[in-house]
Model the fold of this input.
Amino acid sequence: MSKKVLIIATSPRKNGNTNTMAEEFKKGSDEAGNNTEIIYLYDKKISFCKGCLACQKTRKCVIKDDANTIVEKMKNADVIVWSTPIYYYEMSGQMKTMIDRTNPLFSGDYSFRDIYLLTASADGGEYSMDGTIKGLQGWIDCFEKTQIKGIIKGLGLQNPNDVRNTDFLKEAYNMGKSIK
Done:
């Protein structure tokens, strides 16, 4: 049975390492027979959450921008894949802003169960993704039906195309292909 897989690529670089990993993940997922879509945030208008909590009653955000469409796609996806570069040992600001804007999903009905994370860090230390993983796990903990299913730690990727000379792309492809 095919799954709806939504990849949210949060890099501000059009051809950055995590976007390249996201594309390989999509190839694998598509080959496994899934309906896979990538949303690139670099060209989207996404404002900061105002913290008004109106969405808790209406299930809609009062801010009218691209986040509303993305949240609706997230609600109906079976699998969500976040891809982010690591800045100062943490997820990109674009990813954090998008996570904050998912508040209309909280305590509502949603389809997603499995969450994946694709990361790229200039730092080569395993610890460089810890802040991102902890932050994402905090979001996952708010959705009791979900779990983290896989993480790719793209370590030591200094320049935008460095991922092309690594096994991280094959790992992303295989992870996407494993979704059934």
